[in-house]
Amino acid sequence: MYKIYKDSKGLVAHGVSACAGCGLELIIRNVLDVLGEDTIIVIPPGCSALFSGFGKETALKIAGIQGNLENTAAYAAGIKAGLQIQGNEHTTVLAFAGDGATVDIGIQALSGVMERRDKIVYVCYDNEAYMNTGIQGSSSTPLGANTTTTPTGKNTSRKDLIKIAEAHDIPYAATASVANLVDLRKKVQKAKDTDGPALLHIHTPCPTGWGFDTAKSIEISKEAVNTGAWILYEYEAGVRKISYKPKELRPISNYLKLQGRFKHLKENEIVEVQDEIVSRFHKFMSEL
Amino acid sequence: MQKQQETPTNMLENSKVLGPVATIFDSIHTGSWRLERPKVNFEACIKCGICEKNCPPNIITVHKDRVESVEIDWYYCKGCGICANECPKKCIAMVDERGEL
Ligand SMILES: Cc1ncc(C[n+]2csc(CCOP(=O)(O)OP(=O)(O)O)c2C)c(N)n1
Ligand code: SF4
Ligand code: SF4
Ligand code: SF4
Ligand SMILES: [Mg+2]
User: Fold this and answer.
1) CATH number of the domain to which B37 belongs
2) Which residues of A238-267 are buried (b: 16+ CB within 10 A; e: fewer)?
3) Do A219 and B85 touch (CB under 8 A)?
4) pTM attached to this predicted model
5) Would you state the CATH architecture of domain A23-286?
6) Which of A66, A171, B37, B43 is 20 to 30 Å from A100 at the Cα level?
């Protein structure tokens, strides 16, 4: 379909202007590697649009459309309906959107998809702010994190996307992270095989927005999981299942101290963040 | 506006789609960003493939059958250092791009 100027090993070009060390770049490669060529992608504005390309050029070998921040899920549902009317049940329709495009601006379209049971795969890569426009806070920005719109640290907790999906009782929803790519790939495959909407919420380290050395992306994601700041789990057929349970939660400072966005936090504020993370984790465990 | 939107479309050879459409799959030269470069100590490498799996631009190939086991595509390597940070044998060092060979 495309004129190949510079080929790549997989479906994604190698030379894309995502920042060095970008977690999103690793996620889109793994997601598309599992879903395969028979996939149509919908991408809203945001860092993932770097992969849609500019003008005549694209960084993806599959068909796709660059939509709007408000309606990624609705675009995907429409494409799926069009395919179904043509008798095509095999093509996967993937919505691939950031946190701002999902938990804030596109939440209504996503809710519609989940209520109608549209058979699409929705991936929210969560870098915990509006990165592409200069690090504005979103409702995924965690407690205490500094962004350009929360200069003294965000004073509220993050929105729980999977719980919103659970409220719609969709057949499959899961969290994932670049901390465990094997687990991530398994969940993408499950999402693809699900009959109905499937939602993946993927923790996405962002060196530029979080303020850390580009080499530390994977290390930081692992700290997020081991401190309880990011819980890996699945919601399948009405049942929650933890994918990885740390033996003992490590102190949250292990995660916070690696990142510039938390460096303003005073001792008592670190304790507040610690309390929030631990109580969320215990509440989660008690509800399993 | 309409004229402008149709321009890229005219480049399509076998499809009549209206609107701005990308028809070229291409890459930029991200290797030019690099300030530091990963240097592998091949003697210590156990060819586990962890560096390859975690490289964001996916430009590492681990060859099990070669002494120089880890091949990196310098045209794209951004010098992020993830491969060095994740290597379990710590056999990748980040060296100054303009320094030693
Ligand atoms: C309705 C609307 N508001 C604002 C924008 C400007 N805008 C473009 S990309 C973007 C950031 C999106 O953030 P997110 O979805 O989290 O993706 P990220 O850039 O973090 O990858 C914004 C605010 C827009 N395109 N549409
Ligand atoms: S700002 Fe963050 S998410 Fe966006 S390309 Fe850079 S590292 Fe990736
Ligand atoms: S991670 Fe290290 S040991 Fe494993 S293949 Fe790469 S260089 Fe070799
Ligand atoms: S420095 Fe980064 S881009 Fe270069 S080979 Fe290592 S992981 Fe890949
Ligand atoms: Mg974001």
Assistant:
1) 3.30.70.20
2) eeeeebeeeeebbebbbbbebbebbeebee
3) yes
4) 0.96
5) 3-Layer(aba) Sandwich (3.40)
6) A171
